Structures are given as structure tokens and as C-alpha cells.
Batch of 2 targets.
Target 1
Amino acid sequence: MAMSGGIDSSVSAMILHEQGYEVVGMTMKTWDYASSGSSKKETGCCSLDSINDARSIAVEKGFPHYIIDIREEFGNHVIKDFVDEYLAGRTPNPCVRCNTHIKWEALLKRADMLDCEFIATGHYANVREVDGRFVVSKGKDEWKDQSYVLWGVSQECLSRTIFPVGKYHKSEIRQMAEDMGFHELAKKPESYEICFIPDNDYRSFLKNRVEGIEEKLADGLFVNTEGKVLGKHRGYPFYTIGQRKGLEVALGDPAYVVEIKPDTNTVVLGSYDELKKQEMWVKNVNLIKYTSLDNATEALTRIRYKDKGTNSTIEQIGDRVKVTFHNSVTAVAPGQSAVFYDGDDVIGGGFIER
């Protein structure tokens, strides 16, 4: 059981324990805040307090608890990719990278070492077997649903995965913690931050990780979609597709980042209408519900975590998927995840190419 010390994974462990599973708690140390250059007090899944909270649950319920240090793997995969993607003019998806390449693989490896049959996490999602495939579907709590960040998990991992809180609303999970006597746990606040950016300031993180990035990229140009120079910016990695605030350039009308050109350190600004797209291409696709998309398929496609999704037609062409939206969408950001749904089921997903 992956235990971060938060309410969802803690209650998950207790649910499994009460159902008669032989639970082994596992807390993964992925990051230390001193490396981020943040001045914020250390909180969240990698803090000492969170590790101790996870351990106390295990002690209370009488099952083993281990801490595994995966900071090196996390740094080599998630942090490096995060920096590289921004330097390539894209918007990274670190939680997807972490789930796909780090957390599940690390859990499965330790599960095998400990002769554990299943791995479990506190994600608000569900998994079930359909026609020999293990399918991720949305959690019951629509607001908390985390199926979007799970599109990259392999069939091998899904076949051994349990999501204990997927069939509950968050309010029910808080009540369970209260009923079990864990009153402080029941009051724990939500955490919406990227674990290694506790102050939500990715720009400062990049400045700390890439020496001289400001000096090297300062004085890049803002241009409009016709190439007319509109002013200077602070460096293309500090902007994202769809951004409107913080551009520090006055044009009279609302302007949005519609394209980023890293080769020339150019940021293209346009109107809201110029931000709209009718189609996109998706790479590194992992299909979950089906082994392949043999024909054009109708799906709801989400392009951001809290995106409600847009009806679309998806078509597999080679190793990529072409998405044609039935209605135009705004702020299609290369590097972000596109996830395809059939009702509540995840058909699959990938990274937006363009």
C-alpha cells in the first residue's frame, strides 16, 4: 500500500486492513525540498511529518511500514523531463510521468520482493477487467477523479492494482477517518501542488535548476501571429500556451500565448479566437481499454486535469492518434496529456504533440 501520510492513502490502508488483506505500508521518498530552492515550509508527501503520519497509521493497525528512497530515479526521470520539456517549449505533466515510470514500477518491484499479490494507492479511480483488458475508469467522486493521470500505467501494473477509495466520495473518506478515531487525519487539507514545487512557482524552480537561464534567454521577442514584433519577454520557458496574465506587454486588447518557438526564443501572442483549435496530434500513446484503434472512434477527450472534456473523433495513424474535436477547444498545450474516454472508461492517452 503506497502511503503518503495523507488521508486518502491512510484510509485506503485501513479499508484494506479491515477487509482482511495482509497490508504492507510503503512510503516513497521522491524529493527533498532543500533541492528546490523553495522558502516554503516542508509539507506534503515527502516531508518528515507525512512519513511519520504514515508510519503511525501502520503502527496503530499493526502492519509493517517501510520507507523507500527513490529520489535518484525520480530526479533522473521526472525532474529531468520537467526541465527538458520547458526548455523545449512544451508544458510537462510530471504526475503522469511519475505514475507511469516511477511509482508503479517502484511499488511493483517491492511488492515482488515482499511476495505481495497486489499494489494499492489512494487515487480516486477504479480498475476492472473487461474482455481480458484491465480498464481504468473514473472515481465515484467526479470532483476528485484522478483517472486522467493514470493513462500511462501498464496492463501488467493495472492487473495487480487496487484503488480502495475509488468507490467513495471524499466526504465519505473524511467521515471514515473520524469514525476510526483519526480526527486530525480527517481534517488534513487538500494538496494541489506539484510535490517538488511547494510554492507553485515553476519559474523559480527553473531558475534554480538551469544556471544562467534568465541571462541567456532575456530579451526574447513577443510577436503576433503575422510576425509583427510586439515587445520583449523574459525567456520562452517562463510562458505556457493559453497564458494571459503576467505578459507585461500592453496591446489594448486581451492577448494570449498561442505558440512558443524555442529555437528563436519567440513567444507568439494572439486573440482568444487564435487560441482555438479543431484538431491535434497525440504521441506516446498507451491504449488501456482496447489493444488498438482499428477505426475512427468517438470519444470524450480531456486536454487538462480539470478539463470536462470535448466530444471528438480519434483515429490511430501509425504510432500517433489524430484527434478531431466536434467543437473547437482552447489552449492545446504540447507536452500536456490528452486522455480519451468512453463513458467513465479510459480508452487511453498520450502526450499532445501539436
Target 2
Amino acid sequence: MGLFGFFSKEKKEKLDQGLEKTREGVFSKLTKAVVGKSTVDDEVLDNLEEVLVTSDVGVNTTLKIIERIEERVSRDKYVGTDQLNKILREEIVALLSENNSADVSGLPIAEDKKPYVIMVVGVNGVGKTTTIGKLAHQLKSSGKKVVLGASDTFRAAAVDQLIIWGQRVGVPVINQGMNADPASVAFDTLQSAVAQDADVVIVDTAGRLHNKINLMNELTKIRRVMDKVVPGAPHEILLVLDASTGQNAIEQATQFVKATEVNALALTKLDGTAKGGVVIGISDQFKIPVKYIGVGEGMEDLQVFNRVEFVDSLFLNK
């Protein structure tokens, strides 16, 4: 079933492995935070606050979580430190639920929109093109006809890399080479997709433009020409962020949310970092659902984000 099947044992094991560094980092700190304590008091909460902030959950989100735990401690009167993991787990799941990061078990695309158009944004080096390639592979494996568009025309390497991914996956890549007008490439891509009766279109865009060109204007122009070919497109603007950059990923999200109407997030490279807590912070701060997470190098290691499975892996055996 690939990416869009129900959460398999293999995928759960891969997720567990991918979050190992974050899990070890958080819980080694959490153990120290409660050492010698039997109940959750102000000192434990102060220590927990420090653990969450240093795990890249973010200050505002951390304060929100601490406030919720304080309310539960106040309500329940006596809360032992042995219950802290359970309470923390429940509050993180609740927070992700409120931020629309829902549990997904089916196709994360709208079946009533054909072609379903995804515009992918993000700075260079976050794994944007790799994410597109893996997503295209798994969509194709699930029976979808996919077309890719190389609208990141300011770097020759970006166009070449997407073409290589297209060849590897076996899906067409519409491109006009380096320095072509990105909006023109997007226009051609959607026209080609419509002609081919494609199910899904994924268009890569520049993460950083030359100084003379405003990123917001360029992304707006691309969106406008897409809408001319497929009314309502793009249906999804997917921002790809590198989880290993921690708080820098939040700053990148801030800039792209200003530049365009981001409505989905993908967090890459979770397997190589202890900063997986940034997933929680970004989801909470921007109220944009996390849709995909990258937990390895393999084609199947881009997973649809499932908040319950994510938190279960984060608190594995705790």
C-alpha cells in the first residue's frame, strides 16, 4: 500500500528508529528533571520546562504544555512523578489534534480534484526535491498518475535533480531548463497534466531567489497561472522543513507563511537529529497540519504524519 496504507508494523518500527535520538535526548533529560522527587511540584515543572525548550519544542508551546499540566496537578491534587510521562503524552497528542494534525490512514489528497495540484516550497538544502521524489514514488505505487514540474529554475542542480528523480520513479518531469520563467514552467506542467489525465501534479519552486526578484511576488505569480489552467489550483502548498535545524526551521516557516498560503508541512531528516520536538512546536505555532515526516533515506521512509503513532514512538517504553 506504500505511503497511503494503514500504519503497518514496518512503518511503525521505522518511525521508532527515526525518533530514537529525540527520544533518548528528551527522556535522559526528563529522568534528571524528576530525580529524587515523588510528586510533580514547582521545581519539577521548572525542570520540565527546561527539558522541552532545550528539545526544540519552542518557548510558547512549552509554556502552553506546562500550563495544562499545572491545571491537571491542581485539579487532581496529588500527581506522582511516575504519572508525568503519561500526562505529558496526553497533552502533546491533544495539542497536535487541536492544530489539525490528524491521524491519516487513507490518501492525503482530495479525490474530487483532478488533477490535485501540490506546490512545494522551502529553502535549498532541506530535502525538498527528495521529498517530491519520494512522494511521487509512493503516489505512483498507490496507482496514481503523477506529473512533476521543475519550477525551481534558478539553480541548474535543482532542475537536474528533479529530472533524475523523475527517471528513477518513472514519472514525467516538465522542465524548461535553468533560468526559465518559473510561472511558465508551472503553466506548461499543468497543461501537460490535464492533457495526460494525470491524478496528481507536484511543482517544485525556488527556495531562494536572486536579489532582484521578490519571493512573495514569484510564488504569487506561479499560483495565479496555475489557477488559470486548473481553477482552484494549487490545492496544497506544502512547506518542507529540515527538522535537524531546530528553531531555524521555525524561522523558515515564519518567512514562508508570510510569502504564501502554506496549508501543509513536511518535516524531513528526523532520523538524524535529537530535535524532533520541533514537530510539536511548529504545528502549534502556525496551526498548520504536519502532513509528512521523513524518517530515513529509503523511498518508503517519507511517512504520512500520524499524531498518535508519533507520540507513541516518542514515548516508547516510557
